[in-house]
Amino acid sequence: MLKVHLFKKLQGATGVIDFEVKCDFEKGVFWTIFGESGIGKTTLLRMIAGLETPDSGTIEMDGEVWFDSTKGINLTPQKRRVGFVFQNYALFEHMSVLENLLFAQTHKDAKKAEKILHVMGLDVLKNRLPSTLSGGQRQRIALARAIAQEPKVLLLDEPLSALDALTRSRLQDELKKTHDIFKLATLMVSHDRSEVFKLSDQVLWLKEGKIFNQGSPRKVFLSQHSTSKFAFEGEVLDCEKRDSIYVATIGIGNTIVEVVLDESEAINLTVGTSVSVSTKAFAPIVKII
Amino acid sequence: MNEILSPAFWEPFGLTLELALITTIFLYLVGIPLAYYLAFSKIRFKAILEAVIAMPLVLPPSVLGFYFLLMFSQNGFLGAIWKELFGHQLAFHFDGLVVGSIIFSLPFMVHPLLSGFKSVDRFSIEAAHTMGKSQIQTLFRVVLPAMKSSLATGGVISFAHTVGEFGVVLMIGGNINGQTKVASIAIYNEVEALNYTMAHSYSLILFAFSFAILWLVYTKLGNEVKASFHA
C-alpha cells in the first residue's frame, strides 16, 4: 500500500496553488489522477518518484518511509523502486529495445526481460532501435521497460496523450490487460474522461490542487449527470446566429455536431467554452461502426 | 628537396600532432566534468566561470601568451610548482605548450559539450535515476552516448584549433627544435630566414592537413559540427 499525504505550493496558470493530497493507493488497483492541466497531477507522480520534493508531508510504501518532512527523510529516486512512464517515453535511443529493458533491471536477467516482451507481444521488436518504432510501439516499450524494473508502484504520466485516437483506444485495452497480468499498484495521470472510465478501478479527481472527488469512475463521473439520459463533454468551436435561431458547433471527442439553440442558451457561449451536451426525450440509436 | 626527406623536417609535424593529441585527451578529461557541472548545477557564480572559460575566444593570443609566460617561468606560480615536481620549468618546454594549449582551447571543447549536455532529454536522465542508476552510471550509460556528435565536435575542433595555434605557442614555447618548434612556428622561422621553399613545404602540408580535417568534418560528421565551425 502506498500512503501519501503531501503539501506543496505550486505555480499554476492562474497563480499559486496550495497543493494538498491525502490518499492511500492499494496494490493491484488501477488509479487515475484526473483533472485539468496545471493543477499538479504530474507533480504528484514526480513527488512520489522522488523527482520533486514536497514542501511537507509523508510518503510511505508498504511501511517503508520514502519521505517524511518532520523526520528529514527523503529517499532518492534510485532507492524508491518506482516504474515511471514519461509522457515522451524517455527511451534510451542508443540502446535496442531489449537493452532498454536490461538497463532498467536491478539485476540483469535477459530471460526475464524477454519474457516481459513476449507477454506483451513485443518479441519481434527486441533488437530494434527506438528511433525505428512507431509512437504506439514506443509507448508499449516504455511500459515494458517500467515493468522490467519490478517496481513497487507504476506511475504513468499521460502515457497515451501523444497518440492518435485509434492507437490510443487499442493501447488502452492493452494497458488494462498489462495491469491485470502484473497486478502492480498503478497510478495514471489523464484528463480524458473516457480513458479514465475505461481503465481505472479508482479515480482521484483533483481541482485547484485539492481532492475534489474520489471513488469508482461510475460513482465519480455519472453522479454528475444523474438527471440526464445522455450527456457528453464537449467544446464550443463556433456559435453563430442564423435567422432567429442560434447554431452552435460543438466538438465531442472526434465528432463535430451542430446544435440548435435559442438566444438565452447561446448568449453565454463563446468559442472554447467547455459544455455538457445532453438529451432526455429521445431514445438513442446505437449502431456498430 | 633533400631537406623534405630528412627527419628534422618532419619533426615539427610530429610535435604538432603529439601536442594536439595530448591536448585533446586532457581537454576531454577536463571538459566533460566542467561542462556537466555548468549544464546541471544551479550555483550563483556560474556566469563568472563561463566568462573565464570563454576568455581565450576574445583575448589576443599574445596577451594570454604573455601571462602564461609569467605564470610558467620558474619564478611564476605554476612554473615553480612544476619545477619542484618534474625538475624543469613550464616555459620553453613541451609540457608548457600542453598546459597552455589546454587553457587556450578550453572553450572549443566546453562549448560543444555544454550544448550537448543541455540537449540530452531530461526525462531519460530521470528515467535512469528511477531505475536505480547513480549519477555516474547515468552519465556514462545514458548521457554521453546520447551526445556523441557533441563529443566528436569538441574533439575535432579542439584538435584542429591546437594544430593551428601560433601566438600562444610562440610566446611560451619559443623555438626549440624537438621541444617546442611546432609546424606553425617552423613556417614563421623559415619566412624570417627568407627560406621560402621550406616555408612553402611546411605551409602546403599544413594546408592539406587542415583541408583533410575539414573535409572529414563536412562529409562524416553531423550538422552540429559544421555549425560550430561557422560560429
Sum up the structure in keywords.
heterodimer; A: 289 residues; alpha/beta; six-stranded mixed β-sheet; five-stranded antiparallel β-sheet; 9 helices; 15 strands; globular; B: 231 residues; mainly alpha; MetI-like fold; 13 helices; 79% helix; MetI-like_sf (chain B); transmembrane (chain B); membrane (chain B); cell membrane (chain B)
From the 3D coordinates, which CATH architecture of chain B would you assign?
Answer: Orthogonal Bundle
- Helical content of chain A (DSSP H or I, runs of 4+): 25-40%
Radius of gyration of chain A: 22 Å
The multimeric state of the shown protein is: heterodimer
Give the strand order of the largest sheet of chain A, numbering strands 1, 2, ... along the chain.
7-8-9-3-10-11
Poorly predicted sequence stretches spanning 5 or more consecutive residues of chain B: none
Report what the structure shows.
The complex is a heterodimer of chains A (289) and B (231). With 289 residues, chain A is α/β, with parallel strands linked by helices. Chain A is built from nine helices and 15 strands. In chain A, α3 runs parallel beside α5, α4 crosses α5 and α5 runs parallel beside α6. Chain B is built from 13 helices and no strands. Chain B is mostly helical. Chain A: It comes from Sulfurospirillum multivorans (strain DM 12446 / JCM 15788 / NBRC 109480). Chain A: GO terms for molecular function: ATP binding; ATP hydrolysis activity.
Q: What does this entry show, briefly?
A:
The complex is a heterodimer of chains A (289) and B (231). Chain A is an alpha/beta fold and 289 residues long. Chain A has 9 helices and 15 strands.
Helix and strand arrangement:
The complex is a heterodimer of chains A (289) and B (231).
Chain A: E1 2-12, E2 15-25, E3 30-34, H1 41-49, E4 56-61, E5 64-68, E6 73-74, H2 77-80, E7 82-85, H3 97-104, H4 110-119, H5 135-148, E8 153-157, H6 165-182, E9 185-190, H7 193-199, E10 202-207, E11 210-215, H8 217-222, E12 230-242, E13 245-252, E14 255-261, H9 263-266, E15 274-279
Parallel strand pairs in A: 3-9, 3-10, 7-8, 8-9
Antiparallel strand pairs in A: 1-2, 1-4, 4-5, 5-6, 10-11, 12-13, 12-15, 13-14
Chain B: H1 2-5, H2 7-40, H3 46-58, H4 61-72, H5 77-86, H6 94-119, H7 122-130, H8 135-143, H9 148-163, H10 167-173, H11 183-192, H12 196-220, H13 223-230
Helix pairs in contact in B: 2-6, 2-9, 2-11, 3-6, 4-10, 6-9, 6-10, 7-8, 9-13, 11-12
